[in-house]
Amino acid sequence: MSPDEARRRPPTAQQFVLAELRRAITTGRLRPGAPIRQDALAEELQVSRVPLREALKTLQGEGLVTYEAHRGYFVEMLSLDDLREVYRIRELLEEEAVRRAVAVLADADLDRLEAAQAEVERASAAGDVLAMATANRAFHMTLFECAGMPRLVRLIRTLWDSTDAYRSMYYGDSGNRERVVKEHRATLDALRRRAADEAVATLNVHRDHAVAELESVLDDGAPRRERAGEPPLG
Amino acid sequence: MSPDEARRRPPTAQQFVLAELRRAITTGRLRPGAPIRQDALAEELQVSRVPLREALKTLQGEGLVTYEAHRGYFVEMLSLDDLREVYRIRELLEEEAVRRAVAVLADADLDRLEAAQAEVERASAAGDVLAMATANRAFHMTLFECAGMPRLVRLIRTLWDSTDAYRSMYYGDSGNRERVVKEHRATLDALRRRAADEAVATLNVHRDHAVAELESVLDDGAPRRERAGEPPLG
DNA sequence: TCCTCCTATTTTGGATCCAATATTGAAAAT
DNA sequence: ATTTTCAATATTGGATCCAAAATAGGAGGA
What we know:
The structure is a homodimer.
Chain A: H1 3-8, H2 13-26, E1 35-36, H3 38-45, H4 49-62, E2 65-68, E3 72-75, H5 80-104, H6 107-126, H7 129-145, H8 150-167, H9 174-192, H10 196-218
Antiparallel strand pairs in A: 1-3, 2-3
Helix pairs in contact in A: 2-4, 5-8, 5-10, 6-7, 6-9, 7-8, 9-10
Chain A binds a DNA duplex through α4.
């Protein structure tokens, strides 16, 4: 079996379940605050509760779900303050990653960033929200990985994961999509000139805008903890 | 049952196992690079493999162990570069925590810090290495928690956990213990005067010395991945 | 009507058993 | 002697079953 195929369908049930859960949370299929009923979900996904619980433990570690002994797992419900905290931490860590990346950036790295950006622009033009989110993420992670600090990148990735559910709506607006394209171009320009301060600044603008957008969407009240009624997990 | 009792013996086997595993890794009982044999460990701890595996998943999320499908879990083996990366990330996050803490520091917080420091000094004088590590950690976490950023503190705590195994040796040296006591006093002094820059600086010195010490201990070669021979887990 | 207590039900936690995969070691071929 | 193949073994992955805890609902009492 080729490595590609192996990645397509994970070799273990827990990895399959993990991917499904991420998708469910990201797309809002499982809503913030909702309890996760293991029996129902396991049946839905055609696995037993054992791999499901292991996947949930992973998500707990990433902060996507919370856990209470004998009460179970709940989809993490982030308040506005929580979101601001996550974005502030991202700012700290991503600045470090970008500075280190700029210091060692090779032409081949820039080529890969250009390719990632091309995909972002394609998705933006097509209005493909899911592809847009994926491509945007790939662009940023490609940059961060140039820093050669795998643990730092892992932390940043986890922070992105933890707010995926709240960020998915962002790309629905075509104005936001165009803005992202422009901001990426500004970042790329700074990177080509190895202007670290400028690259950090453009990314901060990029991030702050996302936060501001989130705030305006959410400030009519924090999401409520739900106890039932979410649709099944097709 | 009192809350205290409830905390003494965790209500679930996975939490018990998690604590035991942490201790085993921290004390070097499970050595970096060693594979974790689930059957043997489960029998050792008198539980089945199910809660053990959930505990391992938690540790995987924290970076204390690595996981490969169908091959199992291994105690994470940190290279010198890895350690430096962890400490650099800590520097970034802890600076933020300290600055936020100083901005809102109340007298009651200072009292708690004094109490924590008293415990550090007691342990230092007694030469109690384990108590020293615990007290030092409590001192720092008490400070960080004043920042009112629970996610940030959680990340920092995880980073501390991930290097526990390597830091345990540090307090064996009485010179190191005395140095820690002095550095804490300098930090406390800065905090009392709400001198954020100074507090950050003293903590950076504190941390950098630990890194330097680790480097001198480890630079005769990275630890090897072991495959067998670790003593049983009393 | 409201509160308390107790029981029935639901849900999670964990043990055991079996299946799937990886590893080891020996035998056979080059 | 070295490499390859294949079977035997060890180890992990997962399903099912049972136990323990929490939740929900109703009966009884104030």
